[in-house]
Design a protein that fits this description.
Layout lengths: L3 H12 L20 H15 L14 H11 L11
Helix pairs in contact: 1-2
Length: 86
């Protein structure tokens, strides 16, 4: 995982009270009990933290944290995207 994963972990654990032990690369927003309102709020917090826009076409309840990390890494100035965040 890149340096972005710790930011995701911090936001999920501090802001949304998700237990750190549940924040795994294969976890999805749905498996973390994030409803659509929480997912939208998460997108806003991540935009503020990383300066990367997460729109509904990018972030879904079935988006894995590994896919999200890769999308954010690329969007924040990494290499060309290999695939979507799903």
């Amino acid at each position: 995982m890149s340096a972005i994963h710790p930011t995701i972990t911090e936001v999920l654990s501090r802001t949304f009270r998700v237990p750190v032990a549940e924040i795994l690369p294969e976890s999805t927003m749905d498996s973390l009990d994030m409803d659509s309102l929480a997912v939208a709020e998460f997108a806003v917090v991540m935009r503020e933290a990383l300066g990367v826009e997460l729109d509904p076409d990018t972030l879904h309840r079935d988006t894995s944290l590994a896919g999200l990390t890769e999308f954010l890494r690329v969007a924040a100035g990494g290499e060309a995207p290999a695939s979507a965040a799903r």
